[in-house]
């Protein structure tokens, strides 16, 4: 559909009858932050950037002092130093201990439920009071502003395990845990759009007052609570402030390191993220990281009710209280496809490590007379149209040697499949490994299910193994036309 724009100014009479246009006219001025930063990114951005943008030279001991990020270094060393000093000089009171635990979860949720699942991944909507709570609690974790944190995390998801990933797990556990913050990055992280966050009044408010907020909620607030309510000013500062902050830091850092280091890959093993219960306990429920990287907009990390994910439970509770809404869940059908893909892949790996019966097409076709002649020299038995050499098994047969001996040179199909004994799957599989030939005309009608050993009835096949050529005669039987 096209439209024609009138270039002349309408007359006063026409103005009174004009209706609003179907599409709003373009704005004369566009704010810089409204334009997605990745709008003009080329399709080969990652490979082009890695090829054409030289990284900074490797860090050496002589150049280390020039490469350090001194602000991050100070935060990540002074805070634990205060906590260690306080452990030797300040007595831990019971009230302060429990306040540390509570405030650890509050500020931790500011990161996991706020920074991560709300703002970085937009996995649900939050009311304004809840957003301000997350903004203050997240500031109390002292890990950067919402905008800065989300920009880095979106780059991590977009460029996982590449050189444009700010905390690339392939560079080692230490780098992804804390090293990337202590030194200047060797390469600028990949472009990631946060223009949506620039429109949020809560994000802008926190960004503007971030320094005051981290001082207030990182140290002053936990200290004042302990001091005012039970008189433990030093304990509040050392334990609820410094020690709690140290634990929150390394808890969050484990999402970048531990969650890419230990565990399983039940949804996809293309990248390093893994699922592990230990990581979940350490990170407030962020440990089911393989699921998260596959389905990042899902408000859950743990999809099973018994898996530890307090962040999910908190968001769900907020939704019940009317503080959150539009909780996103990836379609169950697609989640199960991911699981099935990995299950089939592992079964395929097991399957490829096993030896199966020789292909019928690779076996010689032998007539009845030749079969009987050869049976006088070795114990050959016919079962379901295949000739089997039982030399290695005749003396180990559980039913006794005589049951095999009396069928040498004969067709023992009926005896094998229930006439004497309805043999187990294991017996059928073992027998198939002894095939040495195909009896000419020996494939009786109705034996199709018995020809294939049980271990080969449910094969895991690659898609290339299932595709037949367009003109293949296997598409229909010889006596069938296109209309049946």
From TrEMBL:
Keyword annotations of the record: Electron transport, Fatty acid biosynthesis, Fatty acid metabolism, Heme, Iron, Lipid biosynthesis, Lipid metabolism, Membrane, Metal-binding, Oxidoreductase, Transmembrane, Transmembrane helix, Transport
A Pfam short name: Cyt-b5
A molecular function GO annotation: stearoyl-CoA 9-desaturase activity
Protein name, entry field: Acyl-CoA desaturase
Cofactor note: Expected to bind 2 Fe(2+) ions per subunit.
CDD domains, sorted: Delta9-FADS-like
Ranges for domain Cytochrome b5 heme-binding: 369-440
Keyword Magnesium annotated: no
Recorded family membership: Belongs to the fatty acid desaturase type 1 family.
Organism: Sparassis crispa
Cellular compartment(s): Membrane
Polar residues: compositionally biased ranges: 1-16
Main location, first listed in the record: membrane
Domain of life assignment: Eukaryota
Lineage, opening ranks: Eukaryota, Fungi, Dikarya, Basidiomycota, Agaricomycotina
Cofactors named for this entry: Fe(2+)
GO biological process: unsaturated fatty acid biosynthetic process
Membrane-crossing segments per the record: 70-90, 97-118, 130-149, 209-230
Disordered: annotated segments: 1-26
């Amino acid at each position: 559909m096209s439209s024609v724009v009138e270039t002349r100014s309408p007359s006063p009479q026409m103005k009174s009858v004009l209706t609003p246009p179907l599409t709003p006219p373009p704005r004369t001025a566009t704010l810089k932050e409204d334009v997605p930063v990745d709008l003009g990114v080329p399709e080969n951005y990652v490979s082009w950037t890695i090829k054409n943008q030289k990284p900074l030279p490797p860090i050496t001991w002589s150049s280390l002092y020039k490469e350090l990020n001194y602000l991050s270094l100070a935060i990540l060393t002074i805070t634990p130093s205060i906590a260690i000093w306080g452990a030797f000089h300040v007595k831990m009171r019971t009230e302060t201990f429990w306040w540390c635990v509570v405030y650890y979860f509050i500020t931790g949720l500011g990161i996991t439920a706020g920074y991560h699942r709300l703002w970085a991944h937009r996995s649900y909507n939050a009311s304004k009071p809840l957003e301000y709570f997350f903004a203050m609690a997240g500031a109390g974790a002292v890990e950067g502003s919402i905008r800065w944190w989300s920009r880095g995390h979106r780059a991590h998801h977009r460029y996982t395990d590449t050189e444009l990933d700010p905390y690339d797990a392939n560079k080692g556990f230490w780098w992804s845990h804390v090293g990337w913050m202590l030194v200047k990055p060797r390469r600028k992280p990949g472009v990631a759009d946060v223009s949506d966050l620039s429109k949020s009044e809560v994000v802008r408010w926190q960004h503007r007052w971030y320094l005051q907020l981290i001082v207030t909620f990182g140290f002053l607030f936990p200290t004042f609570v302990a001091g005012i309510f039970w008189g433990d000013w030093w304990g509040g500062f050392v334990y609820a402030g410094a020690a709690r902050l140290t634990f929150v830091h390394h808890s969050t850092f484990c999402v970048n390191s531990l969650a890419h280091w230990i565990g399983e890959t039940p949804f996809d093993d293309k990248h390093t993220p893994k699922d592990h219960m230990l990581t979940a306990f350490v990170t407030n429920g962020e440990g089911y990281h393989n699921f998260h990287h596959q389905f990042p907009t899902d408000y859950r990390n743990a999809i099973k009710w018994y898996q530890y994910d307090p962040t999910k439970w908190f968001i769900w509770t907020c939704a019940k209280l009317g503080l959150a809404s539009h909780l996103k869940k990836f379609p169950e059908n697609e989640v199960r496809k991911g699981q099935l893909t990995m299950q089939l892949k592992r079964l395929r790996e097991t399957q490829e490590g096993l030896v199966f019966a020789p292909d019928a097409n690779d076996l010689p076709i032998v007539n009845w007379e030749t079969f009987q002649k050869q049976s006088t020299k070795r114990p050959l038995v016919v079962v379901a149209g295949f000739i089997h050499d039982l030399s290695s098994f005749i003396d180990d047969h559980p039913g006794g040697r005589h049951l095999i001996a009396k069928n040498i040179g004969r067709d023992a199909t009926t005896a094998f499949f229930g006439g004497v004994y309805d043999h187990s799957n294991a017996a059928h599989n073992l027998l198939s490994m002894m095939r040495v030939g195909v009896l000419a005309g020996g494939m009786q009608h109705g034996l199709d299910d018995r020809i294939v050993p049980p271990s080969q009835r449910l094969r895991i096949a690659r898609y290339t193994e299932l595709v037949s050529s367009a003109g293949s005669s296997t598409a229909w039987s010889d006596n069938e036309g296109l209309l049946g």
